[in-house]
Amino acid sequence: MQEETQKVKAIIVGINDTTDELFNYELQELVALCEACNIEVIDEFYQKLTSFNSATYLGKGKLQELKQLKDTYKIELIVFLDELTPVQLRNISDVLEVEIIDRTMLILEIFQKRAKTKEAILQVEIANLKYMLPRLVGSYTHLSRIGGGGGGSGGARRGSGETKLEEDRRHIERRINKLSDELEKIVVSRKNARKLRNQNEIKTVAFVGYTNAGKSSTINTLLQMFDKDLNKQVYVENMLFATLETSTRSIKLTTNEEFLITDTVGFVSNLPHHLIESFKSTLEEIKEASLIVHVVDASSPYANLQIDTTNKVLNELGVEEIPMVYLLNKIDLVKSPLFLPRVDQDNIKLSNVTKEGFTELLTYIKSHLFNNTICCKFLIPFTKGDLFNTLKTKAHIHQFSYENDGILVEATVSDYLYNLYQEYLVKS
Ligand SMILES: Nc1nc2c(ncn2[C@@H]2O[C@H](COP(=O)(O)OP(=O)(O)OP(=O)(O)O)[C@@H](O)[C@H]2O)c(=O)[nH]1
Ligand SMILES: [Mg+2]
Fold first, then answer.
1. Which residue, by CA, sits nearest to atom 27 of ligand 1?
2. Could you tell me if 78 and 10 are in contact, meaning their C-beta atoms sit under 8 angstroms apart?
3. Whose C-alpha lies nearest to ligand 1, atom 8?
4. What per-residue confidence (pLDDT) applies to 139?
5. Are 332 and 200 contacting, i.e. CB atoms less than 8 angstroms apart?
6. What is the model's pLDDT at position 231?
7. How many angstroms separate the CA atoms of 256 and 250, rounded?
């Protein structure tokens, strides 16, 4: 749950250099990002331009208009739709005399507020510092963020001189190196945990997709189907970036096949580059998946745009080789198949409300993960009772009988178990 603190009032500002429809979507998304950061959007302010003003983002006259609007509403914060250059940041601050942030800073702020595990905290802080580094010169810096403190301080640090600037820069660089070393240690232990899992032959299905598409909800529905323990549920909220950390749960089917499902952080268009870089270690989990489930909010008019954004990040991670299925989620909200997003690969229509599509999803997962299973017979000596127990938990036993020289078991097993128990196979 998000802490209930007083909301900060803000105006959002953008330049419309695209179609009105796309621009409105971008503004709406910025409002949702603000909400996720406890910022209340009072007004939207925009200018139609073919290119941004390199010095002041908006035209000079428009900037003055914005200043008046800010004074009228007594606004404490102005949020810009696009990433501002260090020069724009400084010039705009000079004119507006109010705290200003851009979309990138906003996303970094959300991640900073939500990060809970040591790994996520380190990742966000590194991304923050890397973003800040080129913007140190006379900007409204967020130096309070160093050391993981709360963000958003707006004190001007103008004119502190070259030496001070160099000092700050070196301090930040040292801190980035130190944090990166710490992060590396966590990454190594994560890798080792994954290696162990691989040795146990347990396959993973990674759920990826745009933020708020319903990844965590779908995982929870699956968990409920096979495990009544509600403590294993993952966090769900109607808010951008509800999930920030990767979490993995195991599912055991009634036929004893077992696999892992991994919930991942949601993507958003123009995700800050430093953030993707920093989160790559978390997203590494996707690389080792046997199947990627790409969850899409099929009810969003911008579903195709969101699919493209997600695919772009996936390409950056280099996971094109892993089989992927689109999950067209929230189908309960789609009025006509005509409105469904167009995808040219395998896809399953699904709803966490009506629960339709889950049987199909499970069949799909099973066929991809366990297609190399073998139906065979073993004769297990009575002295190897533990092997029989393993088969009972890891394989699908069709029948068994106690014979003179051991237990005769007919089962469907993975090729891994098949090879492991070669010596007990009964040749037919
Ligand atoms: N109507 C409808 N709403 C859904 C469905 N699935 C999820 N939702 C809602 O969509 C919102 C987002 O769901 P989450 O499961 O948190 O989405 P997510 O993809 O994990 O989001 P992030 O963690 O922010 O990336 C929640 O309010 C869910 O209740 C569905 O099938 N139908
Ligand atoms: Mg989630």
1. 238
2. yes
3. 214
4. 45
5. no
6. 73
7. 12
Task: Specify the pLDDT at position 141.
Answer: 42
Per residue in 100-158, pLDDT (tens digit) is: 999 999 999 988 888 888 888 998 899 899 988 888 764 444 443 333 333 333 334 44
Q: Which ligand is nearest to the CA of 211?
A: 1
Which ligand has its closest atom nearest to the C-alpha of 333?
1
Most ligand 1 atoms within 8 A of CB, residue of 212, 223, 247, 329 to mutate: 212
Cα dihedral 384, 385, 386, 392 in deg (nearest 10) = 130
Query: How many angstroms separate the alpha carbon of residue 404 from the centre of ligand 2?
Result: 54
- pLDDT tens, 5-56? 788 999 999 999 988 988 999 999 999 999 989 999 999 999 998 888 999 9
Using a 10 angstrom Cβ sphere, with 0-12 exposed, 13-18 middle and 19 or more buried, the burial of residue 66 is buried
Task: Take atom 26 of ligand 1 and give the residue whose Cα is closest.
Answer: 238
Task: Give the pLDDT means over successive 10-residue stretches in the chain (428 positions).
Answer: 72 93 92 93 93 91 94 94 91 93 91 85 90 69 38 42 80 94 88 73 90 95 83 80 82 87 88 76 82 97 92 89 94 92 91 96 90 88 90 87 94 84 87
Q: Which ligand is nearest to the CA of 110?
A: 1
Closest atom of ligand 1 to 352 CA is: 31
Torsion of CA 146, 149, 154, 157, to 10 degrees: -30
The residue nearest atom 2 of ligand 1, judged by CA position, is: 330
Q: How far, in Å, CA of 238 to CA of 224, rounded?
A: 20
CB atoms within 5 A of ion ligand 2 belong to 216, 242-243
